[in-house]
Amino acid sequence: MKNYETVIGLEVHLQLNTKTKIFCGCANTFGQNANTLTCPICLGLPGTLPVFNKEVLKNGIRVGLALNCKINSFVKFDRKNYYYPDLPKAYQISQYDFPIAKDGYLPVQIDGQLKNIGITRAHMEEDAGKLIHDSEIKASLVDYNRTGTPLVEIVSEPDIRSPQEAYDYLTSLKLLMQYLDVSDCDMEKGSLRCDANISLRKEGAKEFGTKAEVKNLNSFKAVKSALEFEVGRQKKLLDSGERVVQETRLWDEAKQITLSMRSKEEAHDYRYFPEPDLVPFTVDQKVIDAARKALPEFPLAKSGRFIKEYGLSEYDADVLIQDKNLSQFFEDCIVNYNEPKKICNWISGALKQELNAKKINFPEAKLSVDHFISLIQKVDDGTVSNLAGKDVLKIMLDTHKDPNAIISNKGLAQVSDEGALENIIAEVVSENPQIVEQIKLGKESAIGFLVGQSMRKTQGKANPKIINQMLKRRILDV
Amino acid sequence: MKLNELTAHEALAAFKAKTTTPKALLETVKNAINRTEKKVNAFAHLDEIPYNSKEDAKAPIPIAIKDNICIKDYPTTCASHILKNFKPLYDATVISKLRESGANFLGHSNMDEFAFGSSTETSHFGPTKNPWNLDCVPGGSSGGSAAAVAANETIWALGSDTGGSIRQPASFCGVVGLKPTYGLVSRYGLIAFASSLDQIGPFTKDVEDCALLLNLIAGHDEYDSTSAKIEIPDYTKSLINDAKGLKIAIPKEYFIEGISPDVKASVDEAIALLKKKGATFTEISMPHTEYAVATYYILATAEASSNLARFDGIQYGLRSLPKEQRKTSLIDLYEETRNQGFGQEAKRRIMLGTYSLSAGYYDAYYLRAQKVRTLIKKDFDDAFKQFDAIITPTSPTTAFKIGEKTSNPLSMYLSDIYTISANLAGIPAVSIPCGFSKDNLPIGLQIMTKPFDEQMLFRTAYSYEQNTDWHKKRVNL
Hints:
The structure holds two protein chains of two kinds. Chain A is α+β, with helices and mostly antiparallel strands. Helix content of chain A is about 40%, strand content about 20%. Chain A has a nine-stranded mixed beta sheet with strand order 2-6-7-10-1-11-12-13-14. Chain A has a three-stranded antiparallel beta sheet with strand order 5-4-15, with no helix packed on it. In chain A, β6 and β7 (about 115-125) form a beta hairpin. In chain A, α10 runs antiparallel to α11, α13 (about 420-430) packs across α16 and α15 (about 445-455) crosses α16. By secondary structure, chain B is α/β, with parallel strands linked by helices. An eleven-stranded mixed beta sheet of chain B has the order 1-3-2-4-6-5-10-11-9-7-8, sandwiched between helices. In chain B, α8 packs across α10 (about 345-355). The radius of gyration of chain B is 21 Å and the shape is globular. Chain B starts with 7 loop residues before the first helix and ends in a 12-residue tail after the last helix.
């Protein structure tokens, strides 16, 4: 058995979140009725001409800068010619020899170590439409809503060495793009799409092996699984003395295998040539410098700052920065209540749990800093229990009400008044004589069960510390 | 004189004097079409477009529109089977502008399929005839527009010029045809042949009308990124009959073997006339002229191969499936549609262009041609540093017989040998009538100036025209 090194390069297509499409005035929105977001230009009707949306350029430059690329100030478009029903002009307006950005890198945390994955290029282009295969009427339908959606294609160097690294690269890239606010990076909606090139070579070899291109990857997990499958497939071929064929393969999610899609005979010659309908132009260096200055703080820098400034653990900081909005919320909270560790725990714990349960993003929760802090303070000062606090948070997310109002309305305040608890304690003790006996015989830990029983009877409103003290006093007379 | 034989400026004067009305003019023109269209076949589609009743219209003039310029809701087919019944969802920018000025569209004039040709013989609707001799071609590709003006079936016409498609038919039909500077007139709504060369331009009976019509269609358009952001002057202000001091160049490469003696004699006479009126002439050399045709056919076909790819039977126009039951794949649909939809010349040019853009050939053909294009442009830049205008024949010959060159594409391509360079250089060029051959066919004089100097073009053309009567000749059909 020989040892092989895995070599992976990724191509990521990112739909930009500009208001309008790249070459016409149509709205750039997802999820509308088919063919309602179209005009003669994005339908590619005869005689129409593209006009470049400069907002796309702004975002293209930002993506390039965030990936530590050189920016090509000479902006030029080319035509990539191929036939497909979802491509109404039968050519895609793209960038060929002058991509907006090139020669950059993305630092990625891999096994606790930072590794720079090279970025070959990032270029601007238009998206195609979408084919819908209708089995009922036995026909294929075209939805041109997506036609002309602005894309940035980010091509990595073949610097990725394992399926896990590919996964980590994608996670870092997605997070960075979310921080830039250029795309919602949602693979389900297709606003982030990924194709992978993978080959194996003998360890220590300098030449690359023959690669396969894997498409139809609908999640980061699918990327990883498909690449793992390819490593196995290619290894088997090489071990048995066969050759890997250069081809495009499709990931079959159901069967968890890749399948050959097209052979070499059908390989495309895209006949790129300069797009004559768009005049090349030069971006002023000042515009690029201004864009650089306006870049937000990136995830890695923010994580480092959280550790240093707020004394968070590396783990805590890392969890917080995974969501740009949550990390911003965290800092907003601290301004008003300087308890970083507590706030971090509430955000990373209860809040994230609730968001996941409701399947919403943080902005959709419309949670105010004041309400959130006020809740944490009520728990801290013992007004409500930790458990009840979580319930209050849940109601807050549903109703957007002040936590104080919720606590008093629902009667969730902790009962610390011993007089009010006296009867309950008596009940619990008389209902559990065996447990009481055990405790008397020295098994003090059994008292936890009785605390739980008491809490239940108060519907969680009792202060567990007080209950514990009262039980001990009654049973052990201490 | 019959109303339909008037120029637009004469008609506008008559409207003002109330001796006739725009409606009467339109009526006369439509009657003329009814009388002579069977002989000429100048139109691809005669449309019953409602009368443009715009009040205080600047120019309520009947006009024919080349079949590659989109008129909303009316068939616009590039004289091709593949765009059968295609009705655009929008007006070309020039059409919106003309609507604003009160123009009345008569319909779409005939052309070579997708503007591929110099004779209007490749039209799906059959060839257009030259009104001066019905056995001859009107030139092309805007042959329908030129013939309609010459046959008095319209007052004005619009054409498009990619390598001479306005000027050569203007020359063959004895009318005025202008290819404006690239970027002066919006291409939005012009169904593209070669995007970096195409320009829409006027066909008229004289130079004054040409200036009037250019006034109406020129100007920046936010829908065309290649349209120039410049102030548009009133071109009628340049109609100055004064050749004194004009410095004019005659490139020797344009007076070569193959030029017909009649054409040469007429152009020489034109030069002599302008000399008499005070212009000075200098023979110059434009060394890259001989590469123009080859350069053009590489670049134009490359762009065309891409521009015409969208006619695939999916969204609009012709859709054709093979009769064999087993052939039902997407590729079969594409192949059959394009095989049925395109004529011979369109197929030839798509093949040529596809070839020169293909991997392994791009550098040798397309890229090299782009470099030669730069050199050709430089020839003109150099000339216009010293001279106000360049004068040449528009075409080496007068109109040829129908069918004479259809079997020999190369000889057809050479019909544009004098007009192609202006497209490659992006400069304005006009063809104006300058005589008739012994067999009574019109001859055209080509005048070229530097980019966006249409004013000098009009002054030079007007100074010649106003001292001749060629533009006043009318065909009797």
